[in-house]
Amino acid sequence: MIAYLKKNGDKAKKPAVFLDRDGTLIHDRPGYYLTDPAKLRFYRHTFKALRLLSRLGYRLIVVTNQSGVGRGYMTLSAAAAINRRMQRDLVKNGAMLDGIYFCPHGPAESCACRKPAPGLVREAAKNHRLDLGNSYLIGDKLSDMRLAGALKLRRVFLKSGHGRSQLKKYPGPLKSLVIKKDLLAAARWIKKSHKTPVTGHKPAKIERA
Ligand SMILES: [Mg+2]
Ligand SMILES: [Zn+2]
Questions:
Q1: Helix (H) or strand (E) segment spanning residue 99
Q2: Are strands 2-5 and 179-180 parallel, antiparallel or unpaired?
Q3: Is 120 helix (H, G, I), strand (E, B) or coil?
Q4: Is 63 exposed, middle or buried (0-12, 13-18, 19+ CB in 10 A)?
Q5: 0.85 cut: is pTM over it?
Q6: Which of 48, 66, 80, 152 is deepest in the core (most CB within 10 A)?
């Protein structure tokens, strides 16, 4: 489901950075569903990180699971309002997203868009003419990393949000990934590595921020 889509007439395929929302751009805590736009709290480095990624030429696309809708904790229009509010706050701080895509379904609905299912990324790739082979995904959960792995996106795992607890819970699949302490560290790592061709699959480098 699309909460926001920036139109642009550029015909050339562009790489993107796909961004998880909760625990990546904004504060998140276990068992808590953000249902009120006024309670949205960005990490202090979020604007700077997004401005950097944007300057590097990446489209910025948020892909977020919002099962609070499917679970009945909030309405679809409340979820959309939170995403619109997020975009307004980002624009005020010079950090504009190209799109916000969210899955409103609960885990039992077996939809095609709840991460790690690829629906949101596929929809965005089509709408924005994205070059997935040179794109990244940044998130704080195993489901984000599984989605990136399935679509062969380069991926960065964050220790912010649920990152530290996910690392304890799923050390096997997570510890060999590129791990950064937060979004700004991830953006700086992408800046250093973004000209490296993706061809010739090297095993993931173990990095600790
Ligand atoms: Mg998250
Ligand atoms: Zn869904």
A1: strand 99-103
A2: unpaired
A3: helix
A4: buried
A5: yes
A6: 66
Active-site residue, selected from the candidate residues 22, 28, 140, 182: 22
Residues 6+ apart with CB under 8 A from 155: 136, 137, 138, 139, 144, 145, 148, 149, 177, 178
Taking the CA of 22 as reference, the closest ligand is: 1
Ligand nearest to the CA of 63: 1
Please enumerate in sequence order all residues whose Cβ is within 8 A of that of 66, keeping only pairs 6 or more positions apart, or say none: 79, 102, 103, 104
Please name each of the domains of the chain with its CATH number: 2-193 (3.40.50.1000)
User: What are 67-107's pLDDT values in tens digits?
Assistant: 999 999 999 999 999 999 999 999 999 999 999 999 999 99
41 touches 27 (CB < 8 A): yes
Which segments within 116-161 are labelled E, that is strand?
A: 136-139, 154-158
> Which one of the ligands is nearest to 69 CA?
2
Is residue 182 flagged as an active site residue?
no
Q: Which two tokens stand for residue 61?
A: 């696309």
For residue 208, the model assigns a pLDDT of 55
Q: What is the CB neighbour count within 10 angstroms for residue 71?
A: 14
C-alpha 132 to ligand 1 mean position (Å): 21
In contact, 111 and 100? CB cutoff 8 Å: no
**20 is known as an active-site residue:** yes
**AA identity, residue 202:** K
- Catalytic member of 10, 20, 140, 182: 20
